[in-house]
Structures
1.
Amino acid sequence: MPERHADWLRQSKRDLAHARHAAEDGDYEWSCFAAQQSAEKALKSVYQRLGAAAWGHSVTNLLTNLPEPYQPSEDLVERAKALDKHYIPARYPNGFDQGAPMDYYTRPEAERSIQDAGAILQFCEHILAGLAARGGESQSRRASDEGEPSGD
């Protein structure tokens, strides 16, 4: 499988820009969802760069399941939890007893979501920059390491 972390990162940045535009247009529910998507894709870019599998849409799970040297602060985990709450309700009316998502989302929620996604994107860019400076983790090296007996 080709390594495409740069594509995931580019789309993450595009989603964050979309979140900003949606907030400016008053489409706060879409702003929150796009912010969640930005954070999710930023994290998936890190997993791609590491040659690791990343499944699911939970920003919290993606963040907290990063390998040990890349563990996030508790503040970043709290931001991820806030973003995760926008994955479904921001898009579907059945997330509420009545009305549509557009009736419930507010500018402050959109602004916070944009800030939260921006913080996670910055965290991911920092990891990716560190990997690039060190030459990254070689997928082929890791694959050969996995094939060696563990001695257990």
2.
Amino acid sequence: MQPSIFNPWTWRDPSALAGGYGQTTPSVTPPQREDGGDGRPDAPGPGTPVDLVGYHVQASDGRIGTIDEASDETDAGYLVVDTGPWIFGQKVLLPAGTVAEVDHQERVVHVDRTRQEIKDAPPFDAGPVDPEYRERVGNYYSDRYVPPPGSAPRVI
């Protein structure tokens, strides 16, 4: 068995950025709501690029804020989250690899970290991201990565 290697800057499920309803292949028809919907627009269709700015961010144990900036660059993906009053209006940088699921219907990004883990991360600096800061943040989240139970190891 090969070891699991976690790259914090790579989206674990890049299809989550392309709309869809939990399944993002063109052959899958989205489930129909029995109640006829809730009046909100549907999630974008499969393959449609999605801007995550404005989505809420949910840690494993509660809400942490709203996405202020998002990057889907190859091996450099991240979210900048405005925590509002939770951490006195500070922002946090979350590497893309912390994202467990994107719910486009509810406009919520779920991350697999606790609020305390996010609060204890290296503080966000609004200036240009320098390689040393990026490495500190990447190491912080990599050291705390635990693959989901029963998942196959992922080697990058």
3.
Amino acid sequence: MKLPGLDRLPGFERAMEQMQQKQEEIKRALESARCEGTAGGGMVRVTVNGLKQVVSVKLDAEVLADKEMLEALIVAAVNEAGRRADEVAQQQMTGLLGNLKIPGMS
């Protein structure tokens, strides 16, 4: 979406290109970031990337006997890993916005 007159600001196009480059850098960083959530004293471990995609699930043999407990622990571990991924994403976005110099706005 183009806003009328913004393209006439000096350096605006360059600033937009820089923002797009930074977005790509952040996306790559989030894809490679790993965040772990645990539950049941570490009996369930879930690892997600910074985009909250589950990368791995590790289960201790002890939890396999109780299906309902296992399900609850998996949910808890996934939620914890997701919260940690949110923190990583927030840090990345803060870095993007903090270093961005937009003409007329800085």
4.
Amino acid sequence: MPNASQKIAENVLLLAVARISMALALPMIGFITWVTGQWLESKFDAQDQRIVAQSTASENQSRITTARVETAEKTAQSAITQAGEINGRLISVETKQTQESAAADRFQSATLTRLDRVQDSIVGLSNAVAALTATLQAVAEERNRSPPER
């Protein structure tokens, strides 16, 4: 008889663990999703701040370039030389802005793709937990139906 009571205690413990894991699965998935969302939001905010800083730096660079153009107009001899420099710098700034914008778009796309993968993984894990729980319940029911061994 102590063997039968031990089996009952193990089945009750297994059932309790299964029920607790089922009850905590959805809140845990929600928490993980929320934490991931907060992390992504902070990354996007940091990226936005960098873009604003780059825009400000670009505006400052444009102001400097404009000041140099005005100086070049006053001096006829150096105007041709400085105009070439300014044009090259302006193209460099525009190229850099374009590259940074493209890099930001790629980062956002890659991040969203990763988030989709994480969400798919969470759904898969949830399904696996549900299948495991169902299997454990089926095993428990089968043990309850079969006559005890003597």
